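Readers outside the structure-tokenisation community will struggle with the description of the input data as it stands. I therefore recommend that a typical entry be quoted early in the introduction. An entry of this sort, consisting of the sequence and the corresponding backbone structure tokens, reads as follows:
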Amino acid sequence: MDNTKKVQLFNASCVALVVTALAFATRGSFVEAWATEFDLTHTQVGWIIGTAFWGFTLAMVFGGPLVDIIGLGRIISIAFFCHVAGIVLTIIATGFWTLFISTLLIGIANGSVEAACNPLITSMYTDDKTRRLNRFHAWFPTGIVIGGLVVYLFNNIGLNDWRYAMGIMLLPTFVYGYMFLKKQFPQTERVVSGFSYKDMLKACVSPLFLFMAASMLLTAATELGTNQWISALLANVSDNPILLLVWISGIMAVARQFGGTVIHNLKSTVVLLTSSVLAFIGCLLMGYTSGALVFASAGIFALGIAFFWPSMLGFVSENIPQSGALGLAIMGGVGFLGGAIAQPVMGAIFDAQTAASIPVGQTIEALKAAAAGTQEAATWAQVQLTGGALTLRMVALVPAVLIVSFTFLHIWKRKQV
């Protein structure tokens, strides 16, 4: 395949990934809006948000094995149609179940993008996988920045209805659909390399692969779980908490776009271990700081999670190449499974920590119903802020486990040399 066609397919993949990020960013800012408009608890909203991750996992589990059979192009087509259907259904949603189904469709679309584009990129750039995957995945936080700024802009010009922000997603969706239209897709690396389907299945149950899959569950829960809830957890830190998500995502985008060359020259185990340490420190600090210091803490957290996803995929592709498209699909699916599990868990922890922070003699119902400007309203804001901080401190336990896991992996890899 000539370089021009590679660039066209790579660019189209990046736009498709932007759409998945827009869904992630805008949905994160809808947590409180959905809870209020549809009278939902944070746990219920967590289940709705988590459905996108379940849909992603479903698409990866079924789409990964089918990539070599039905082709990359057909998987992309599934992504396009599910994106359109999911976005439209979300806009006309009337309650829990319509939001649940529409979010599931968007999750399937997002998973299909990953199922097709990851093996597409590793097949086109066989000698430059990790750097190219980092540049590709840089467009996920970039899309979150775009989505966050759209929500911020709409809120400031009076378009507070979340449906406007959702509708904007249709534009890049049609753009990537057009960019992929009638394009010729290459065979996957696994097919070109001559590894059999049996070799691929065997590689996907090897001890190293299973270890990485288990670690992916935790790295993704750290990144996707925390980012999806950050606006709600720190809603009372600033007037526009969505800017915290924009800040985190902006740092991730720059790190992935320009840090790929540095990462390419470092041992992947060192990158993963360092990332875990920074994620732990950043998450813990966000639970203890306030004001401008929260943004500094969030910056440390962002540097920690920036290289998790692409480095995990790059490690598997380079160290277990026999796993092929299925291996990448399983890793992505397991990652979003971690995100799916994290959503209702974080929602439940947030509810529990918020309830535990209510002063003696007060009730959550009375505080929530308090008029703006009253002492009760101020108490409710402080209660939510305390609940969010306590939740972040508990979430820091996840990257703490990763520090131990990747230390073990680094020592093991050094012994293999």
About this structure: Residues 324-356 form the longest helix (33 residues). The chain is about 80% helix and 0% strand. The mean pLDDT is 85.
